[in-house]
Every structure is written in C-alpha cells, then in structure tokens.
Amino acid sequence: MAERTIGEVILDVKNISLRFGGVKALTDISFNVREHEVRSIIGPNGAGKSSMLNCINGVYSPQEGSITFRGKTFSHMNSRQVAEMGVARTFQNLALFKGMNVIDNLMSGRNLKMKTNIFQQAIHFGAARREETAHREFVEHIIEFLEIQAYRKTPVGRLPYGLQKRVDLGRALAMEPQVLLLDEPMAGMNVEEKQDMCRFVLDVNEEFGTTIVLIEHDMGVVMDISDRVVVLDYGKKIGDGSPEEVRSNPDVISAYLGNSH
Ligand SMILES: Nc1ncnc2c1ncn2[C@@H]1O[C@H](COP(=O)(O)OP(=O)(O)OP(=O)(O)O)[C@@H](O)[C@H]1O
Ligand SMILES: [Mg+2]
User: Fold this and answer.
1) Of the candidates 175, 208, 231, which is a domain's last residue?
2) Has residue 243 got a pLDDT over 50?
3) How many independent structural domains does the chain possess?
C-alpha cells in the first residue's frame, strides 16, 4: 500500500441520526473518508453498520445530519442520484439476478453509464450498437480482472457463494465508482475465498484508486487492510482511528468482550 497517497476528504458524514420507530439505529454519527483510503466500519451485530451505508447511498433518509460528497451536501437523496455521483455498493445479502449469467449481471451495473435509451436505440441503431460494444468490452475487462472468465456465461445462481460475492463486486465495479461501499464482502467465505476477496479489494483500491468503505467482522482482515477504522456500538460511535488506535481503545475492547452491556 506504500505507493498509494491518501487525498482530501471525499465523503463527510455529519451528525447522522436514524430512528425506526423507537429503535435508534444511529445516534449523532460523524466521520469522514479520505480519497483513496480503505475506511472500515466495525461493530457488534445490530450496531448500525449497514444502516450507515444505507444512509450514505440514499436507501435510508436519516432524521438528522448531513452527508457531503465531493463538496456537495445532501440530507435526502435517492439511490440513483447517489450512484450517479459515483458511489456504488455491494450488499450484505446478495442482490444479483440469479437466473442471469455473469456477463449480464455485470452489464446491469453498467445501466447508469448507458446514454441511449430504447427509443434512441431504435432511431440511432448504429450508435447504440457501438455504445453496447464499448460497455461489453468494459465488462470483459472487469471479468478478467476478477479472474472469472471461466464463468462468463454461467447463471449466477449456480456459482458457489464465494464466486457470487465476486460477481457482486464486479457489478459494483461496472459502475466505475469513485467510492465503493462493501457490506461484509467476506462473510460466509472459507479462508481461501476470503484471501482472494481481500486481494481483489486491495487491487481495486490500488489499481483503480477507488476509495473503499468496508464493513467486515473478520478483525484480522480489518486490521490488515484498513487505513482507518470507525467503531459503532448500539448506534453510537465509540472509536475512530488507525487500526492500532482502535485495537487499544478500552471502549472498543469492552464492546467486543460484551462488558459494556
Ligand atoms: N428497515 C429497518 N426497520 C427497522 N429496524 C431496522 C431496519 N434496519 C435496521 N434496523 C435496526 O437498526 C439497528 C441496526 O441495524 P443494522 O442492520 O444497521 O446493524 P449492523 O451493524 O449492520 O448489524 P449486522 O452486523 O448484524 O449486519 C438494529 O437494531 C436493526 O434491527
Ligand atoms: Mg449489517
């Protein structure tokens, strides 16, 4: 990770509070993400990690607070607007089209980038076909990058879980995001699959310069690949800093040992 230079703040989360009826999923959360960094969000089950990502990508509207992305501040934005601004995500529970093959799933991530709609396609058939070809080439490049050439035409539902997660990463990469939000990309994987996924996440970060926001339960992975870590517990931020700082933070230690509850 030595050659990578961490840049300015690209994503600034300020005083976010999110409630579901009486449940306080997030309380007054602030943290920032710098360009090109790997920023992890950790915390016990139900801590609010996925809710935080859902606020960032416009799935949930927090009752309080704001999110600034590349200098633009918003409190309510829909998922499409966020995606158009260059934020992509993968999901804790896979959101792939299981009956569709790998190529088509990746092409679905390309939709936002397609300029021509079906009416324009009918009129400007040649232009649409050239555009389609360019998108397919881009998708093939991702397929090579993720080393899934052998499964290009395989329906995603037939692939082993670890490979489905990799296709989900590919779908997000097809959007050419500046910021990639990953919700437990290694959950349920065996050691070898985890190592592969870890390497792909780092390669994306280093080769494409993509900023990564990562939710992960495997502390070995988190400590290994993160530049900075935010720790949530019961919807509150209890730690924020380098992996070393977070690891030695007494509040974090007690949350993980279960002493604080
Ligand atoms: N759509 C929702 N409706 C009601 N409550 C919700 C909703 N989404 C999340 N919550 C609640 O908000 C709290 C935080 O949940 P969240 O899924 O963000 O936690 P998490 O840290 O991602 O947990 P895990 O590690 O298990 O994935 C939980 O109490 C959860 O039940
Ligand atoms: Mg979650």
Assistant:
1) 175
2) yes
3) 2
Domain hosting 36: range is 7-86+177-261
Q: What is the mean pLDDT of residues 75-87?
A: 85
CA of 57 to the centre of ligand 2 (A): 14
What predicted TM-score, i.e. pTM, was given to this entire model? 0.91
Please give the Cα distance from 254 to 249 (Å, whole number).
9
Distance of CA 225 to the CA centre of its chain: 15
Residue 47's closest CA among 215, 241, 247? Answer: 215
Please state which of the ranges 66-80, 108-122, 125-139 shows the lowest mean pLDDT.
108-122
Q: Are 95 and 59 in contact (CB under 8 A)?
A: no
Residue nearest to ligand 1 atom 23, measured at CA:
46
| CATH code, domain with 17 | 3.40.50.300
Site to substitute for ligand 1 among 50, 217, 261, most atoms within 8 A of C-beta: 50
Which is the closest atom of ligand 1 to the Cα of 60? 1
Which ligand approaches the C-alpha of residue 47 most closely? 1
Ligand with minimal distance to 41 CA: 1
